[in-house]
Amino acid sequence: MQEEVTATERGRPRDVMSGAQVLSGQLGKTIQRLRKAYNLSLSELAEQSGVAKSIISQIERNETNPTLATIWRLSQALDVSIERVLATNDEEPFIEKISRADTPNLVSEDGLVRLSIVGWIKTVEWLQWYEVTAEPGGILDSDPHQRGSVESLTVTEGMFEVDVAGTHHRARAGETLRYRCDRPHSVRCIGDSPAKAIMVVIMKAAVME
Length: 209
Prior knowledge:
Layout: H1 18-37, H2 42-49, H3 53-60, H4 68-77, H5 82-86, E1 105-107, E2 113-117, E3 127-134, E4 139-142, E5 150-157, E6 159-164, E7 167-172, E8 176-180, E9 185-190, E10 195-202
């Protein structure tokens, strides 16, 4: 589990991989086009990216649906953003819908805070986002993420208090707290009313010294 809870996970999106499948046809063409633009052979791209030559060949022929980590390594070797690699053309629109029943939920140890995983599972290694709902007094304790990771909490209802390594800050509806989450941190619902927020976690963000 990427985010910070000992949790139960209810169900999995039935169509959560559909977006990647839609993108895969264009993905292979994009990788091949960029590789040829840099005048790289399959072997050379494999050496520079750390992705096996056979896997790259399968991707270009649209015979496999690669993981985000594989796409990331290829984009780094080709010196382009991952957004460009994943971009579809105008003739291949991409849209998917996940029902509330199929949205996975994580529950805090005290049972008072719930995280609905509304982010795309394909971005979980570098970008995660959640809908947070909490009862008064509910607390979400978190272990440190990777060094340089940053968390953003935008409160939509009620009030939350964030504790990062002993430093406390509060935010009400309409306010946002951003903080390093590569150290112990917690989010607590304070006040007499339930609270809601959107939480975005950027993994391996630029280190803020």
